[in-house]
Every structure is written in structure tokens, then in C-alpha cells.
Request: fold
Amino acid sequence: MKILVINGPNLNMLGIREPDHYGKETYADLCNKIQSYCQGKNLEVTIYQSNHEGDLVDEIQKAYGNIDGIVINPGAYTHTSIAILDAVKSVNIPTVEVHISRVEEREDFRQISYVRLACEKTITGHGTDGYLEAIDYLAKGK
Ligand code: DQA
Reply:
């Protein structure tokens, strides 16, 4: 099974940005954690991060026909991007939305998630373990 993990803007700043919300693990720590988890489960994983909306759309489109499940944390684009929603809808690949922080307890502007409309599941507030939970969900095929 092939899994694509996509991270949006500022997630490359993990470990530096707002540790009260996002913890102390760096982006490299997150990538290592995902890679070793997938290795242990015999899952093929590609990890992608971009600060640019169109690049995220391109990566989602590239997944069509090549990827069995997507884990996506679109960062702030969660709350603004219909383009990312449409891209996920276009490829018709089972997708799980992940947020490191408990977005539902934060500002009003974080209460809208466009991408959620195309996702089978949403995981919030479990820190970086949320990515592993999303991978487990996709690997179980439900
Ligand atoms: C985030 C939550 C978003 O509101 C924020 O813009 C992020 C990270 C999270 O992982 O908790 O960049 O997606």
C-alpha cells in the first residue's frame, strides 16, 4: 500500500513555531517518525511539504492512480482553500485530515475546514501521533 503524507504552510517550522500549540518535535522528527512507523508496517510512504497552495494541488493531482491513501494537514489552507478541497475530491483517494493542535478549541477562523468535506476522517489535537493514527486508519481500509 502506498501512502502520501502532505503538509501545508509553516509545518516545516515545527519545533520552532508556537510550541504550546504544536509541540517541540521538529519537522525532521515528524518525517522520521512517519517513515519508521510505515517501515514497521510494510507501507510505502512519500512525505511532501510546501508553503504554496498550487504546489499542494499539484502533489494531490500527481497522486491520482499512484497512491492508495492520503494523510493531509493543509495548515492554514485548511480554513481558506477550496482549491485543495477540489483537488482531493478530484483524485477520489481515501483521505484523512490531521491537525496537530486542537483546532476546535482555537480561534473562530480555524473552525471552518474546507478539505474536511472531502475527507473520510479528521484527527485533531493528538500532536504528531495523529499522523500515525491516520496511517493506521488508511491501512485498515476503513
Ligand atoms: C494546524 C492548524 C491550523 O489552524 C494552522 O494554521 C496550522 C497547523 C495544526 O496542525 O494544528 O498551520 O493545521
Summary: The chain is about 35% helix and 20% strand. The two ends are 14 Å apart (CA to CA). The chain has a mean pLDDT of 97.
